[in-house]
Amino acid sequence: MRFSCDSCGSRYLLADEKVLGRLVQVRCRGCAALITLRDGAPEPPKPARLWFALVAGEQRGPLSDEALQREVDEGRVLSSTFVWHEGMAEWKRLSDVPR
């Protein structure tokens, strides 16, 4: 099965039998985006969600899911950091928000 990363366009090849009848998640080697494959076909992309985070009293954002994850990985956003995206009623700690 041939597929590509929706975020950066990197192309990949994966044996069909590894995906057939399963849900498979692969991390892009180019940009670290999560790619979800099902029954040999890519899952439709999720609608873009833009995050905002309160870091040291200042609002950061808008941040894509990937950019927010980078902020977490690099230690600038912690599980105790308050975050918000459209559709949320109020700011919540990152640890209390499903992603």
Distinctive features:
99 residues, mainly beta, 2 domains, four-stranded antiparallel sheet, three-stranded antiparallel sheet, 1 helix
Protein architecture, described:
The chain is mainly β and 99 residues long. The chain folds into 2 domains: 2-42, no CATH class; 51-96. The chain is built from 1 helix and 9 strands. The chain has one helix spanning 65-73; strands at residues 2-4, 11-13, 23-27, 34-38, 41-42, 51-55, 58-63, 82-85, 92-93. The strands form 3 sheets. The protein has a 4-stranded antiparallel sheet. β6 (51-55) and β7 (58-63) form a beta hairpin. The mean pLDDT is 89.
Read across the widest sheet, the strand sequence of neighbours is 7-6-8-9
Can you summarize the main beta sheet? Answer: 4 strands, antiparallel
Count of alpha/pi helices: 1
**Distance separating the two termini:** 28 Å
The class by helix and strand makeup works out as: mainly beta
- Counted up, domains total 2
What is the H/E string?
Answer: EEEEEEEHEE
- Residue-averaged pLDDT: 89
The backbone outline, from C-alpha atoms, is elongated
